[in-house]
Design brief:
With about 80 residues, this protein is of the alpha+beta class. It is about 30% helix and about 45% strand. The chain has a three-stranded antiparallel beta sheet, with helices on one face. Strands 1-2 form a two-stranded antiparallel sheet. The chain starts with a strand and ends in an 8-residue tail after the last helix.
């Protein structure tokens, strides 16, 4: 579970479920992360890297949602 903090007038804490799966890419191991509630996915060379990357994706998805309340307007 990832907690995202937004710095505004008041603090908001949001929890999102993130699924991380290892995947062999040739001889190298990479990690895929997916947040099903926001349909955000990313990958990284380590678990720490993929967690940082998916957090950025979640924050971006939330910013898009805030600026475009209608999901169809976001695309």
């Amino acid at each position: 579970m990832i907690m995202i903090y937004f710095a505004r007038m008041e603090k908001t804490i949001l929890n999102f479920r993130v699924i991380i799966e290892p995947e062999r890419h040739g001889k190298k191991m990479v990690y895929n992360a997916f947040c099903p509630s926001l349909c955000v996915a990313d990958y990284g060379n380590s678990i720490d890297e993929v967690l940082d990357s998916i957090k950025d994706g979640i924050v971006l998805a939330q910013q898009v949602e805030i600026t475009a309340p209608n999901p169809l307007q976001a695309y």
